[in-house]
Design a protein that fits this description.
heterodimer, A: alpha+beta, eleven-stranded mixed beta sheet, four-stranded antiparallel beta sheet, 12 helices, 15 strands, about 35% helix, about 25% strand, B: alpha+beta, five-stranded mixed beta sheet, 5 strands, rod-shaped
Chain lengths: ~350, ~220
């Protein structure tokens, strides 16, 4: 049966068409933005495989689907690297199932398409369109359309408030910072975890592409930057995308202070939601994020065809993490880490 | 012969590998399709159930820690502290009940003070504290012609109340007189004052001041 939708590959010259669909879409995230896609493209050299979808015979795009094509052992996979969301943005009144079917049919004989979605989007029709799914974790999103004091008292846990008092009592200060100040703390954290790092040029590209939409806060103690957080703002939503701190400063609770500062700033600015990003329930990181309140929402990678769902599984990364710390000096070597990162597009 | 045997083994191994692959693939397809079906059902109907709700809902331990404003590891120490506090409060309550009964009986059997003329009363609280002494003295402010001296030997404190119709007598002066005799000091205003001194001398000092007021100022006791 011929598809009722036509797919149009998006090239670098199609930025305006892309923005026309994405920028006003109520569910669009920073990971759908042209700025994010451009930064990923220029830093990692993946093959862009973004699609604009139009009704058959029509010219006006009715959906946008971001993705980059990466080579695997057998065939290529179109994925959304380094982010939480890559679901299709479909215009109101358009048949989502039809769009998903058209996208699924475009993967080729050995290929696969992975779409990252979250429970909060309410997007449906994957199963009927031939997608399987893999659960990848959970996000927590906090409503910041309230005064910060109200958020702190009503949403933060007692433990979270206690840690903030500790931070306040230990002369820890948080101030706006720059990528240049944040990157050394990020690099230290990656070395501690044995996880290949992003090149600094990627952070700089993001800052350049997003402009005011990329914010850095730094935590200082006794004149030294002991931690930082990198935030990406888009469409009234703030993503806490990267966070790092020195282990020897943890007693001063820099991460609590940084999250609170990001939330307080969001309450004062035109930000409706702070999204704490993906984490796995039951882990320390997830428990940390829960201290700030908010609504949890499940994350999944929807995969077509379903027998290639394993390509979206994060189990392998989890298993590798347990031994990666031993090889940290190699994995995070400036000449090796950024190159390896290209292959870890979780 | 050997060659044929080897070929058979190779084919058998290949067959096992193919069966294993297709079984694994079938399981993967089934699981992922079930999940995507659940995903769609949740998106169109009931709300998505976050994994944390099922697998890491805040445990009872975490909820208790939140209530106590503590880390889970600190819970035993906090509970021990709370238990100590409850035991102390229970003991205090028993003592207070016993003291209340004793004083109620004493008041019942004591001669009534002459409320229509200047009079002086000494109240001694053997285990009392300044809070107790202040509470009684404030109550005694309603007694317009009375001087009330309350001693609390629990912490060596005292409180004095002087009725509003008693000209020429000040609470702070009387409190200083009692406290001075007990090796301490006092302060306050004309109607209400507090102070402190040696616990074992306070009652004697208060009674001495009472006797002076009776003998020199014509107060009834």
């Amino acid at each position: 049966m011929p598809s009722e939708y036509e797919l149009r590959p998006v090239g670098r010259a199609d930025a305006d068409d892309w923005r026309a669909v994405v920028d006003d879409h109520p569910a669009a995230t920073v990971f759908h933005s042209w700025a994010w896609l451009t930064a990923v493209d220029s830093s990692f050299g993946y093959d862009p495989a973004h699609l604009l979808v139009a009704e058959a015979g029509g010219a006006e795009p009715v959906a946008a689907v971001p993705g980059f094509s990466v080579a695997g052992a057998v065939g290529r996979t179109v994925v959304n690297p380094f982010c939480e969301y890559g679901f299709p943005l479909v215009a109101e009144g358009v048949d989502t199932g039809g769009v998903l079917r058209a996208v699924a049919a475009d993967v080729g004989p050995l290929g696969a398409r992975v779409l990252k979605d979250a429970g909060w989007t309410g997007l449906a029709g994957y199963n009927a369109a031939g997608y399987g799914a893999v659960r990848t974790g959970e996000v927590i999103r906090l409503d910041t359309t309230r005064a910060f004091e109200e958020v702190r008292e009503q949403s933060f846990s007692a433990e979270g408030r206690r840690c903030l008092r500790t931070a306040a009592g230990s002369d820890l200060t948080v101030r706006p910072g720059s990528v240049g100040e944040y990157y050394p703390r990020y690099l230290e954290t990656m070395r501690r975890l044995g996880s290949p790092q992003f090149p600094e040029s990627f952070f700089l590209d993001l800052a350049a592409e997003l402009g005011d939409g990329c914010t850095v806060f730094c935590a200082e103690h006794e004149g030294e930057v002991v931690g930082g957080v990198l935030l990406l703002d888009f469409g009234g939503v703030r993503m806490v995308w990267s966070n790092a701190s020195r282990r020897d400063a943890w007693e001063h609770r820099p991460n609590h202070a940084l999250y609170a500062a990001a939330i307080e700033d969001a309450c004062q600015e035109d930000i409706d939601v702070v999204d704490f990003g993906r984490s796995r329930p039951g882990t320390g990181v997830h428990d940390f994020k829960r201290q700030f309140g908010g609504d949890p929402s499940p994350l999944a990678s929807l995969v077509a065809p379903p027998h290639r769902a394993g390509r979206a599984s994060l189990e392998g990364y989890g298993a590798a993490a347990s031994v990666a710390e031993r090889f940290s000096p190699l994995l995070t070597n400036p000449a090796v880490g950024p190159r390896l990162k290209r292959f870890i597009h979780e | 012969m050997i060659r044929n045997r080897f070929t058979e083994l190779l084919l058998a191994a290949a067959l096992v590998a193919v069966v294993w692959y297709y079984r694994r693939r079938e399981r993967s397809v089934r699981e992922s399709l079930i999940l995507s079906q659940e995903w769609d059902a949740a998106a169109t109907g009931e709300a998505h159930a976050p994994a944390s709700a099922a697998t890491s809902d805040p445990s009872t331990l975490t909820q208790v820690a939140d209530l106590l404003d503590a880390q889970p590891a600190e819970i035993p120490e906090r509970i021990e502290g709370l238990d100590r506090k409850v035991r102390t409060l229970t003991t205090d309550l028993e003592k207070a009940r016993s003291a209340w009964a004793e004083r109620w009986w004493s008041a019942l059997t004591a001669p009534a003070p002459a409320l229509d003329e200047p009079h002086v009363t000494v109240v001694d609280l053997a285990d009392g504290s300044l809070d107790d002494a202040e509470a009684i003295a404030k109550q005694a402010l309603d007694d317009a012609l009375g001087v009330t001296i309350v001693t609390a030997r629990g912490d060596g404190s005292l409180a004095v109340a002087v009725g509003s119709d008693l000209d020429g007598h000040r609470a702070d002066e009387i409190a200083r007189e009692v406290a001075g005799a007990a090796g301490g000091g006092a302060g306050g205003g004309p109607e209400f004052a507090t102070g402190g001194g040696e616990s074992d001398q306070l009652v004697e000092a208060a009674r001495s001041v009472r006797d002076r007021l009776v003998n020199e100022a014509g107060f009834a006791a």
